[in-house]
Design a protein that fits this description.
- By secondary structure, this protein is α/β, with parallel strands linked by helices.
- The chain has two domains: about 5-125 and about 290-305, Aspartate/ornithine carbamoyltransferase (Rossmann fold), CATH 3.40.50.1370; about 130-285, Rossmann fold (3-Layer(aba) Sandwich), CATH 3.40.50.
- It contains twelve helices and nine strands.
- A five-stranded parallel beta sheet has the order 7-6-5-8-9.
- Helix 3 (about 85-90) crosses helix 4.
- The longest helix is centred in the C-terminal third of the chain and has 20 residues, at about 285-305.
- The radius of gyration is 19 Å and the shape is globular.
């Protein structure tokens, strides 16, 4: 496995290895501080970022490498140079590339034309690095035995909903996504892929339109912002109206199991997708979740550069 382009690229064994290594890096950040010695990692972002940028640059530094941050308008792509040519150029300078951008096809093209690992730091379709951070956090809360537990996402059927379904399927979990129907539902292709994986791992996949049914007896209640970067501003009023019943408040959290946790990939809009009472409450693990963006990106870089991930066999 050369690249991490999609969550579905990972096999269950890959995820286990990455989660175990991330847990080690959480305790000992400099455990492998010569793994990227005298090497560089390019970090290319066409979308603004807080956690992904800080986590990526810190992860590279903790592995002994030098991060090179590149903004969307820093490269010649903006003046007509092709993605394929850019991939070949970066491959000659860096040992890996982390990209955060809009189109999944751009990430796929970089992977096809590079000789170095390409890591998807977020696209409009998927968010694999976030889901690894989520599952390290989930394991800290519940351990590896997830039998009988239900993991629920409520809100917009966006890239996070897709990644949540896919990673839950890989983990063999009972995973639920609840969204409004129609244009705010997760893509059929993402649901189908998760179901395909679940057939091999024994996971249970549910896609619902009832937030209360989704939250009932859940161990995790997860949400994301309702207006993502790139969403048309003229749709704000209608979208927020459609998503209003899916807001995570105390009433919804009270439907979950007694030891449940609240998760959010951040940034958050208190008073929209989640109440301040929930996100700032005792069940919220959002800061630990954000911390693990670094530990998991560090684990991804460590194992991808060493060629130690097998890739999926679905």
């Amino acid at each position: 496995m050369k690249d991490l382009l999609r969550t579905s690229d990972l096999s269950p064994a890959d995820v286990e290895l990455l989660l175990d290594t991330a847990a080690q890096f959480a305790v000992k950040p400099f455990l492998a501080n010569t793994a990227l010695a005298n090497r560089t990692v390019a970090i290319y972002m066409t979308k603004p970022s807080t956690r992904t940028r800080l986590a990526s640059e810190t992860a590279v530094a903790h592995l002994g490498g030098s991060p090179i941050f590149i903004r969307g308008d820093d490269l010649q792509i903006g003046r007509g140079e092709t993605i394929a040519d850019t991939a070949r150029i970066i491959s000659g300078y860096a040992s890996a590339l982390i990209i955060r951008t809009f189109k999944q096809s751009d990430v796929d093209e970089l992977g096809a034309n590079s000789t170095i690992p390409i890591i998807n730091g977020l696209t409009d379709d998927d968010h694999p690095t976030q889901l690894l951070a989520d599952w390290v956090t989930i394991r800290e809360a519940f351990g590896k035995d997830i039998a009988g537990r239900k993991f629920t996402y409520v809100g917009d059927g966006n890239n996070m909903a897709h990644a949540w379904l896919t990673m839950g399927a890989i983990m063999g979990a009972h995973v639920v996504v609840a969204t409004p129907g129609g244009s705010y539902a997760p893509d059929i292709s993402a649901v189908s892929k998760a179901q395909e994986i679940a057939a091999k791992t024994g996971a249970k996949i549910e896609v619902l339109t009832d937030p209360e049914a989704a939250a009932k007896d859940a161990s995790v209640l997860y949400t994301d912002v309702w207006m993502s970067m790139g969403d048309p501003e003229e749709e704000r009023v209608s979208k927020l109206k459609a998503l209003a019943p899916f807001a995570v408040d105390k009433k919804l959290m009270d439907l979950t199991v007694p030891d449940s946790i609240f998760m959010h990939c951040l940034p958050a809009h208190r008073g929209e997708e989640v109440s301040a009472e929930v996100i700032d409450g005792e069940r919220s693990v959002i800061w630990r979740e954000a911390y693990h963006r670094r530990t998991t990106i560090q684990a991804i870089l460590y194992h991808l550069v060493r060629g130690e991930l097998s890739g999926n066999t679905y």
